[in-house]
Specification:
The chain is mainly β and about 650 residues long. Among the domains are: about 1-140, Immunoglobulin-like; about 245-430, no CATH class. The strands form four sheets. It has a 24-stranded antiparallel beta barrel. β24 (about 350-360) and β25 form a beta hairpin. The two termini are about 50 Å apart.
Length: about 650
Amino acid sequence: MELKRFFLSTVATLCLVFGAVADVAIKDLGGGAVEITFTYKDDASSEMGVIGSFDNWTVPGEAMAKNAAGLWEFKLKALSTDELQYKFYSKGTWIFDFKAPDKKDDGFGGNNGLIVVADVLAGTGSKASGAVAASGPVRKKVSFGTISWLESASSFSSAGKTFTPTASAINARSTLMFYGDMVPNMPGRFELTYFNGTFPVYTPSTLDAMTGLQNLGAALIFNPFYQLGGNVKPVIDKFVFGATSPGLVFETGMGNVYVPLHSSILWTTVQDYLISGSGYTSFSLGPALKQFGDLALNAAFVPNKSLDGYYGYYSFARATLGGLTAELQYDLKSSATSDALAIFQNIPRQDLILGFADYLDQLSIEGQLLLSSYLPGGAIDSRPVTDKLALGLKLGYVDFFEIYQFNISYRYRGFAAQMLYADNASVLGNAETQAVKFDGSLKLGHWVTAKLGTEAEFSTSATSSGNIAVSLIPGTALDFSIPARRTLIADLYGAVSVNTKPSVGTGMIALTKAAAKVKVGDVLPGLVESVDFWYGLDRGTTMFNSLLVEAKLVQGLRAQLACGLRTGTGVSSPYGAALGASWSIPAPQAKSPLLYAQLGWNLNPWDATAKGSYDFNDSWRYLPDGGISKSDGLSSLSLGVSWNF
């Protein structure tokens, strides 16, 4: 019976789809220069950006603007020798361009769009000036990429009036990535990690600096890869291989890989935090079965062992016709870990996820439904259906002249509603809650756009006696570029919380956060291209004010300055400051390595992975992530070089 159920569910999910809504075009300007135009269609979004290697992945990326066709658009000047990676970005969400000229593993279970300008131009069969549409993959050769850095990092205790060294080390990582068609129609990729570790140079009472430097010198001369990797031999820690035919695309992965990600209508139903250490296989529709006139289809079946070592799979089917989209996803987790014949004998968890969307000119309607199923006869299985149910609805509208737009959404999550392959709290909200949300914008003339976001959340188990939490997020976008004759834009946001039954010692109404970004372009022609300012206020037990500045200079140079002020309970170091500089060396033959230097005093706003960049909170773009706790009484100095291509 369980085997029959498996086959029925598989057949049901193989009916499908995905309608791509983005595009890239390249215009050859002559003399080795090109203009790349990114476009993205999303009528429901009030803002959109494109982010990538060209701006060092700095959130929120380069702002896109609506063009005459109603598409989000951004134009970028580049060279014919450039190789760029990118994604679209909107309100904390990273969006892969499924119509990118090529793609590259982003290291988090998904892909970045990849543009090798020379290959795209060559793939069109023409290098004459004019617009060149990049439609579909044009590169089949095996290519090479890397995520590598080598940095000297030192930390100091700076609480109170002290300034005492606490540690000094060399941090190093070098992961080499090979990807492409190994043989025709058989794409693959694998990663070889040469080293990924920390080599101590100084630790108090354990290792003095002179001995540490001597050890480092010996390590770099005799066996650098082994010792920089923490005495671990180089390993192939990711391997993905596949085969592509007109009707079917097969892929299998093992090692330190993620199962392929999936975003449904309103929810990301398969996220990147699940590592499939035991591997996965994926079967999806080939290009010949994805488009039938106006009907677009997509479907996938992904068996894996990523659920704590248990067998399981997820599958989905999606279809789009005109503005109407429908999707069905089915997930399963077995109780078996090794016996393949026992996979369908005992199934403790199953999910059924439905989604739909309809776009009617300026109006959009989207919905998502989850029904979680548990072991028959168990305690959770006997609970009411509403406890195992989650629901999301969203209504959006954009007027014809795009003067105003708004979204109204509702979500509900029962006590036991949860998806197998997602972080449920971030996607579905807290258990036993429901919420109503509104966000919209109104253009007040050419220069000012007023924004408002509000959400009310309350408990479903105690709606009459429990607290109702309301958040208000007013904002304003200002654009004075025309009168200033240069880029001059600003975004301002605030967050106000209202609790009908606040905690003891707190008020009903409180300002919790405030943030602002100001961008000034063409500051000093030939020297300073632009200056960005970010201000953030984060209130809690400790209140933190921060101001971050970055100047983009010519020839890939950037200069950064930050300062912060802490007030409140338990603060040891109220003041903080930071200085930084980076240089993306203009050497395409060497893939433009990045040199960077960062000094922080009671403040550490730097991103640990996107070297040379600030680390912003995804939800609150203009607040440094962890700026309050991770740097109170702690200072740092880092010097390094990074390659990421």
